[in-house]
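Re: beginner question about structure tokens

> Can someone show what the tokenized structure looks like for a real chain? I only ever see the sequence side.

Sure, here's an example I had lying around. Input first:
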Amino acid sequence: MKKEWGEVTNRLENAGFFQDIRRAVAEKLDDLATDPKLKNGDIPLDLGEKIRKGEKVPASVVVRDAIISVGQDFRLMPDEIDIILERFLE
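And the corresponding structure tokens:
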């Protein structure tokens, strides 16, 4: 069953829920920035901190994929993932 637009935005407007997503994205970016396998992955160490502060970060394939992965972990719908991508990426 497809959710109406109001239901999608209401869930992401819940401050606690969105903060949980923000925290998970920041942790994922921290993990990727320090992953020895991605040493040359061009993932700045400060991206997680920027997300925590509510700042947008530069878009890259790796960062976008990390945010999508977190959205899937939270079982977000594609429309909701698009919203968090807009909120987190420059």
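Each token stands for a local structural state, so reading them left to right follows the chain. The chain has a mean pLDDT of 87.
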